[in-house]
Amino acid sequence: MSGFVHLIVPAARFRLVAGAESLTEYTFNTGAAKHRFCRICGIKSFYVPRSHPNGIDVNVRCLDRATIEAIEITPFDDNDREAATAAVAHLA
After folding, report:
1. DSSP letters of 12-49?
2. What is the reported pLDDT for 1?
3. How many other β-carbons are positioned within 10 Å of the β-carbon of residue 78?
4. End-to-end alpha-carbon separation of the chain, Å?
5. Cβ pair 4, 59 in contact under 8 A
6. 61, 3 in Cβ contact below 8 A?
7. Quick one: how far is CA 85 from the chain centroid?
8. Which of 25, 28, 34, 65 is deepest in the core (most CB within 10 A)?
């Protein structure tokens, strides 16, 4: 579950239904991204991404498979972060 499969959703559409008391947060470098993870097991289930600060980046691997009808994965080239971020800007 630690490997991220990113699903960016608008912050207004994100609702954490349980477990908030077990979460902790860390930031690094610019501090723009707010990484949240379980302080007990270390799983990184979601975070506020630097590229989309008004969104929540959910780790698809942490979702219950029974709740997912379909998902399409689009590769993100971190070697050209600016172009890759622009390509998914409509998701914010």
Report:
1. GG----S-GGGEEEE--TTS-SEEEEETTT----EEE-
2. 47
3. 8
4. 24
5. yes
6. yes
7. 14
8. 34
CATH of the domain at 13: 2.170.150.70
Could you count the other beta carbons within 10 Å of the beta carbon of residue 19? 10
In three-state secondary structure terms, 86 is helix
Phi/psi-derived region of residue 31, left when phi > 0, alpha when psi is between -120 and 50, beta in every other case: left
**Entry pTM:** 0.72
* Separation between Cα atoms, residue 11 and residue 36, nearest integer Å: 14
User: What does pLDDT average to in each consecutive run of 10 residues of the chain (92 residues)?
Assistant: 77 90 87 84 86 87 86 78 76 59
